């Protein structure tokens, strides 16, 4: 399902890594994450007027509900598919 949302040239850039291509991102999300029993909680999002960019602020929780980190994600779309994700993180408050 995730694969169908992503442009073939999808790129995610984070402070610690870069994932190039839809398949690399899907593989990381399925098999490469250091902690898989987590939940992304969205606190706020802003969508651009042109509908090609969304900024999401939230935090990642572990299975017990404790914050692991706070994130800010900037998504960009192209031709109805997600083409780019830039992720910024910081430790919880």
From TrEMBL:
Domain SnoaL-like: from-to ranges: 2-84
Domain of life: Archaea
Alphabetical list of InterPro entries matching this protein: NTF2-like_dom_sf (IPR032710), SnoaL-like (IPR037401)
Endpoints of the signal sequence: none
Protein name listed in UniProt: SnoaL-like domain-containing protein
């Amino acid at each position: 399902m995730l694969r169908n949302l992503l442009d073939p040239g999808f790129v995610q850039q984070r402070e610690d890594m870069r994932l190039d291509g839809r398949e690399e991102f899907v593989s990381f999300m399925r098999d490469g994450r250091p902690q898989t029993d987590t939940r992304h909680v969205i606190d706020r999002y802003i969508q651009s007027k042109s509908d090609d960019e969304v900024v999401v602020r939230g935090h990642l929780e572990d299975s017990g509900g404790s914050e692991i980190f706070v994130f800010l994600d900037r998504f960009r779309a192209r031709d109805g598919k997600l083409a780019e994700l830039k992720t910024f993180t910081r430790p919880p408050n």
